[in-house]
Each structure stands twice: as C-alpha cells, then as structure tokens.
Amino acid sequence: MVISERLRAIREQKELSQGDIEERxxxxxxxxxxxxxxxxxxxxxxxxxxxxxxxxPMYQLFYDGEAPPEPPALPPGLxxxxxxxxxxxxxxxxxxxxxxxxRRLSPEDRKLIIxxxxxxxxxxxxx
Length: 127
Known about the structure:
The protein is mainly α. The chain contains six helices and no strands. The mean pLDDT is about 85.
C-alpha cells in the first residue's frame, strides 16, 4: 500500500478530518491533503507527527498487521550485540573491515554512501 493511501485510510477509520490532523500536528490542511493525494512525499519527522496525531505506532503506517513485523534475520556471522566495530583497532584494521563491508554492498547502496559522504564534506566546508 502506498503511504498516502495508508494515511488517508487510517485517518478515515478513526473518523478524523484533515482539519483535525492540522490541529494535532501543526501542519497545514493543504499539506495534509497533498500528502494524502500522493503529490508530496512526507519526511520521517512529518510521518512521526502524523502517527502521533493518529495515535498509532509509526510502524503501522508501513505495515498492515496488528503486531509489529519480525525483524529480518542478520547475515551469518553477525549478531545484534556484535561489538566488533566498537573495539578500538588500528587504522589499518579499521579500513580493512570497512573495505570488506563495502564489497558486500550493492552498487546502488555504495552510491548512496558516496552521496552522503560528499554532502557531509560540503556541509563541513561551508561551516
């Protein structure tokens, strides 16, 4: 389900108007309408506001079930409490681990990381 359709369905199910959402979130009614009609993609912060206004946990905006979805299984060799990255290591070992991790990423994910790093460097230069 598209997020815009989901937001509208939950709002209507709770018998709330777009004006009610406007009052509860501080977002303009026309913005709520644009989001619900799929003309605007809301930020995570906006989705948090809307979830609070609808009095639902945020995962319900993305998931149709009653209980939270099960988290995906971690790749073999990793665990949720893996402290491998938290231990101080030499720069050489750090970059070896980083290179190993980057090799496992898809090309699209690598591009996202490069774009993020570039954005961070530009932001630092401006400050």
